[in-house]
Specification:
Jelly Rolls, disordered C terminus, 2 domains, 11 helices, 4-stranded antiparallel beta sheet, alpha/beta, disordered N terminus, Phosphatidylinositol Transfer Protein Sec14p, about 425 residues, 6-stranded mixed beta sheet
Amino acid sequence: MLLLHQKEQTGTTSGSSATSCPIPTAWLTEVSAFSISCYRLNASLPIHKSLTRTPAAAIHACRAWRAEHATLLAAVVAGTPPPRDAEIRSCIVVDYHSMSELGEPLLISRAALSRPAALFSSGVTPDELITWIMCQRESVFRICDAQSRARRRLVKSINLVADLTGITLAQLGDRVYHETLARGGKLAERIFPQLLQRSVLVRPPRFMQALFPVLKVFVPAKLLSRIAVCPATGRSGAGLSSCPFASARFKPSTLPTFLGEGCECRCIDRGGCVAGMPNDLRAPPLQGASSGGEVDELVISVAAGREYDLILPVKRPNCQLVYQFTLLDKSLTFSVRLEGAELVPPTRVSAADGEQSSVLPLPSAGTLHLRWENSSRFTAKQVRVSAAVMEPAGEAAAQAAAAEALGRLSVGSEAA
């Protein structure tokens, strides 16, 4: 574990920690690590010193694993999701986002939105999670290999940025989850020995400092040495754009807005920068809420003196918002905002008013906030709500779809 200091602003490339040396021709058919592929382009390209000391047994073990999983790896290359992909992605919010100025792929994990504790209860086994991790690594491997060939220099790493904003102890997962990650990490280290350059932890909470010694039990020492905490993001309001390591590699326009001040990317057309989750989300989405802009009927609780935002992505202009909600007790203040513009001004609604429903035009893409504010100092309030963002279509078709959706929501409410 280390801190990223100012000296890393120079943007050190992989070549600075490498040396030129001859490679036996036989290795080109034996080693599948992507860094060797550079030698197929030009024998003068650098190779990391560790590869010249790779035991033959490790090379053959790598080849054996790839041969055993040839069908699975071919499916990854073809773009087929790995087994249990939907279930795992519903609990673990992680996705490839962009590429650095040096050609390094950026994988971002939004730990505060993940629910690792629910992963195995959904039926996913530890072995299936490891398979999913290896398929993810294979995809990154392919990107790095292509970049190495195209740039004619060694692109040997992936920068993984873990956004820890708002994470709680409950979201860190249990022992089985961490042991599974450790097994997957050790396997990935053997099969992709030069894949990871640095894991950057962004805004870790204070309680994690006490957990770092525990990581030594589960995480391989070699992998742990590549984990770093960026001190710049610990300052109030500071974002990853001010991190010495990140600023040397990424333009602010390529960094998601949830990584702090100065970061500009929003990926509105995808719903959000990571796994289609809106960038404004700060907690796991409610059960029944999808990243596609739909919320099945659910009951939310608004704590005393607090507000609750139901956040939905609007991926393109001229969509429609269809919503209905019923306040279960007393009163709340309700409003709707799209990119700061008020679609429904703050309005006091009481339980006596009954069901509230509407169809609203959404003139622009962006992030939609349905907000309920509770002014009570002592009492939490509950709201039963359903909502959907309807895609643009012909005017008549759009009106019919909105009416059908509103009717469907009403039927569901009556049935409940």
